[in-house]
Amino acid sequence: MREDVFKISKDEARARALVCLARDRFEFVKSMSHKRAYKIVEECYEIIKELLTALMYLDGFKTLSHLALLEYFSNNYNVLDKKQLKLIDKLRKFRNSIVYYGEQVKQEFLVNYMEEIEGIIKALFDLVEERIHD
């Protein structure tokens, strides 16, 4: 286990709160125009990050590292394939470029990947919901 992943008490309440926040964000994203591709990419990454963090809370772990979060998920869950995990990492990099450097994302990225991103988000919602109801 990476040293930036910490063992904590399992926290279902925190996980539920993150799922609610992710669900609100997802509804917001669905209403947005593709003209704001940068904002959609940023929000989609935040949704995924919140759902992965919720899984960690359900498992009794925490990290502040986005890379450790994705690594933890890929090592402990077999829900997404390598292509989907690479897409999440691409979203992470885009999000960092947007937030820290003011870079834009081209609309064609959303045209090419939005359906797959939505599929990832839905799969993660299903997984977290299943884990909460276990």
Protein model, in words:
- This protein is mainly alpha-helical and 134 residues long.
- The protein has a single domain (5-132), classed as Four Helix Bundle (Hemerythrin (Met), subunit A) (Up-down Bundle).
- The chain has five helices and two strands.
- Helix 2 crosses helix 3.
- It starts with a strand and ends with a helix.
- The model has no long low-confidence stretch (mean pLDDT 95).
Q: In terms of topology, how is this protein built?
A:
Elements: E1 5-7, H1 12-30, H2 37-59, E2 61-63, H3 66-76, H4 82-101, H5 107-132
Antiparallel strand pairs: 1-2
Helix pairs in contact: 1-2, 1-5, 2-3, 2-4, 2-5, 3-4
Find the CATH superfamily. Answer: Nucleotidyltransferases  domain 2
How big is the Rg?
A: 15 Å
Largest sheet: 2 strands, antiparallel
Q: How do the strands of the widest beta sheet line up side by side?
A: 1-2
Shape: globular
Whole-number average pLDDT? Answer: 95
| Beta-strand content bin | under 5%
Architecture (CATH level 2) name: Up-down Bundle
